[in-house]
Design goal:
Length: 145
């Protein structure tokens, strides 16, 4: 019996679908990290800011309209942990795809490059929001009280 040693090449269509799925996951994680960072702002930074500038009544109105804010505040460790993990995953995928090729078509290449730039901006903005929320939730209470 003779075995056939011809190796099959992966079809370009399959490789391109895989690259698109990785890009989609990277973009999805960027948006998820942004939204969880907003969660950290709503749970900790926004209430502290409103109360510190004398707008406690506005905060009370927000809690009346959106009682989920209290749940975010009560579970802030989980909110910060989840958002940190999502931001780390998003940044890792962006780093791993930093040299991934873009399509040859000029319009698609521009869209690819623009998508990468926006993904990086979203992750940086998410990290900034997370740091602000972390300051208000964990560091400033120790210095102010």
């Amino acid at each position: 019996m003779r075995t056939n040693s011809i190796k099959r090449k992966q079809s370009p269509f399959k490789a391109s679908r895989l690259k698109n799925r990785i890009k989609d996951k990277s973009l999805l994680l960027s948006y998820l990290s942004l939204f969880t960072s907003f969660g950290t702002i709503f749970c900790c930074a926004l209430p502290a800011l409103l109360v510190s500038i004398g707008m406690g009544a506005i905060f009370a109105g927000l809690v009346g309209a959106f009682p989920q804010i209290l749940w975010l505040s009560e579970n802030k460790t989980w909110v910060f942990g989840l958002s940190a993990v999502l931001m780390l995953l998003s940044a890792t995928l962006l780093y791993l795809n930093r040299n991934a090729p873009c399509p040859v078509d000029p319009a698609q290449a521009r869209a690819c490059a623009q998508s990468r730039k926006w993904s990086i901006r979203i992750v940086i903005f998410s990290v900034l929001l997370w740091v602000i929320g972390f300051l208000f939730a964990y560091l400033l209470p120790y210095f102010l009280f």
